[in-house]
Amino acid sequence: MASLQRDEYSTEHVRTLLVEYQAWKSKVGTDARGLHFLVQMADLDRVLARLPDNYWEIVLLHGLLDIEQRDVAVLKNVGQATVSRRFTNALDEIVHQLNHRSPS
């Protein structure tokens, strides 16, 4: 059985996966294109589950739920610069983990 081809994930692609998470999940299917989306969503879900809490919260609120950074800052009682930095660091960590998979 042939293995599914995994792409290298760019920061911009990961940002798009996060922001359009629900739309991408709806594209999952059993045809070749749907399986490609399935692999990407499974890869992302695996990495999201491993993020430290302070990154996960920001990714959830700002990335997945599309709450503005200033509003996330108020919710988390931190500065907007902290939210921005954590989101950027989380993106970097997600990209790193997606592109440096260990065999499982």
Describe the structure.
The structure is a single chain. By secondary structure, this protein is mostly helical. It has 6 helices and no strands. The chain has helices at residues 11-19, 21-25, 32-48, 53-64, 69-76, 80-99. Helix 5 packs across helix 6. The protein is elongated, with a radius of gyration of 15 Å. The two termini are 17 Å apart. The relative contact order is 0.15. The model has no long low-confidence stretch (mean pLDDT 89).
Short description:
The protein has helices at residues 11-19, 21-25, 32-48, 53-64, 69-76, 80-99. It has 104 residues and is an all-alpha fold.
Pick out the low-confidence regions: none
How helix-rich are the residues, as a percent range?
A: 55-70%
Mind telling me the CATH class? Mainly Alpha
The count of DSSP E runs of length 2 or more, i.e. the number of strands, is: 0
Cα-atom radius of gyration: 15 Å
Mean pLDDT: 89
Task: State the helix count.
Answer: 6
Number of domains: 1
The CATH topology comes to Arc Repressor Mutant, subunit A
Please provide the ordered H/E string of secondary-structure elements: HHHHHH
